[in-house]
Design brief:
EC number: 2.7.7.60
GO molecular function, one term: 2-C-methyl-D-erythritol 4-phosphate cytidylyltransferase activity
Strand order of the largest sheet: 5-4-1-6-10-7-11
Largest sheet: 7 strands, mixed
Protein name: 2-C-methyl-D-erythritol 4-phosphate cytidylyltransferase
CATH superfamily: Spore Coat Polysaccharide Biosynthesis Protein SpsA, Chain A
Distance between the termini: 28 Å
Strand content: 15-25%
CATH architecture: Alpha-Beta Complex
Function: Catalyzes the formation of 4-diphosphocytidyl-2-C-methyl-D-erythritol from CTP and 2-C-methyl-D-erythritol 4-phosphate (MEP).
Structural class: alpha/beta
Oligomer: single chain
Catalytic activity: 2-C-methyl-D-erythritol 4-phosphate + CTP + H(+) = 4-CDP-2-C-methyl-D-erythritol + diphosphate
Length: about 230
Amino acid sequence: MSNYIALIPAAGFGSRMGNEVPKQYLSLLGKPMIYYAIKRLCSAHVIKQVYVVLSPEDTMWNEYDWSAFKSKLNPLFCGGDTRAESVLNGLQKIQETVQADDWVLVHDAARPCLTNEHLANLIRVIGEDETGGLLAVPVADTLKRADAQGRVKQTEPREGLWQAQTPQMFRYGLLVKALQALGTDTPTDEARAVEHLGFHPKLVACDSRNLKVTYPQDLQLAALILENLVD
């Protein structure tokens, strides 16, 4: 029977936040933002282990008390220059403890509002799918493509477009193979790497609560969502 493990790439800085503190450690309701992703994944009974991939130069991780999650939580100080490199480094670091058909759920440290419902639905819908898949939201807004002067170049049709979220869930063996095959390509999510091999990941409908904190104002919205979560 396949195991489920989770991996949180958290070796980046998040420059668009305009803050000197790495984004994953920004304070959110009195906790570092990454705390909420860790708590959600560690509380899921189906997930066997949770790995956090940190920069080798990370000096902040040990400033916090993670003892509440010690039975599942494992920091890996092997992050790379890109998300894809960090994920691959983390997967290679744990290769002796996993099997090729184990499921890996890669989740953003900057998505603190993942719910139990979101997580359970992803695992249920993916089931034993041969490829795997990801949480996503159908695009609702009209999309404009800009020119070099910041003017509308054209309007893009939104039919069939989805906004990718995380977790993104793939078999360990497939995900490692996909990331190793990238070459100079640096995708911003794991699904793109799997697509590069010719696979078609399954889209699992989620909602806007599972937002990614990218800009300073997003922290306030995340706080409101967290304060009103009932699970």
